[in-house]
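Blinded run. Sample ID left blank on purpose so nobody reads anything into the name before looking at the predicted structure. Input follows.
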Amino acid sequence: MISFRRSPIVLSLLVLLSSGLVSCSENLKVAACNKIIEISNPVTPTPDSNATFSPQEALQKADRAFRKAKQLEAIALQDPQLQEYKNRFAQLYQQEGEALKQAAQAALEAQGIPATDPKFAEESLKVADLYLKATEVYQQHRSTLQEFTRYCQTQ
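Blinded prediction complete.
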């Protein structure tokens, strides 16, 4: 009777199987990274501080951010680190969308106020603060994307 522990065929099969599993998990990681990158790209460029604020454009960007958050939330992942990155990206898109939506709504409300009215200046500052918040979220997104890219490139 041949012992399974000493059989060269069994050992070879075990080595082959274990290397296949490692390769498979790496392929799953690469596929998951690519899926997250596919949703996250193209990243919206940093808003230009000199550009005129358009409420309609901000609402479109907010909708796009909300869609990306939902797409990311729908991805099932096994890797806990990728799960964390996915959750961070989804949260950042949600925050960006909310800030842009609020800025657009404030800008639309301010449109009916005469420029000489003190409330106009107050509403304009509110719009600027909300828009600034969206740009800060964007910067956090870029930083997280750099970390994520490094993680996906390892192994």
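Unblinding after everyone has recorded impressions. The two ends are 41 Å apart (CA to CA).
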